[in-house]
Design brief:
Elements (H helix, E strand, L loop, with lengths): L9 H11 L6 H12 L9 H12 L5 H12 L6
Helix pairs in contact: 1-2, 1-4, 2-4, 3-4
């Protein structure tokens, strides 16, 4: 399996931190935010299950800008084989 060396950007990490502290954020947004933060400054990669959730969120026309931004970061940090 190929290793993806991308890491979360400062902007994505900041947005993720704000999302996790937002009581109005959805459970999906919080899951995506947690993944983004876990990939900040580390070699962690997106798991298959979370990648599927992020991909679905990107395709959902009801997803808001925050969700799509977090989902895009998560998908970009998945393994190259998926």
């Amino acid at each position: 399996m190929s290793k993806n060396t991308k890491k979360s950007s400062r902007l994505a990490s900041h947005l993720a931190a704000k999302t996790l502290s937002n009581p109005l954020a959805s459970p999906i947004e919080k899951s995506l935010a947690g993944s983004v933060l876990s990939q900040t400054g580390t070699g962690n990669q997106t798991g298959e299950e979370l990648q599927a959730i992020a991909s679905k969120a990107l395709r959902d026309p009801k997803s808001d800008k925050v969700t799509k931004t977090l989902a895009g970061s998560v998908v970009s940090q998945s393994t190259k084989d998926r």
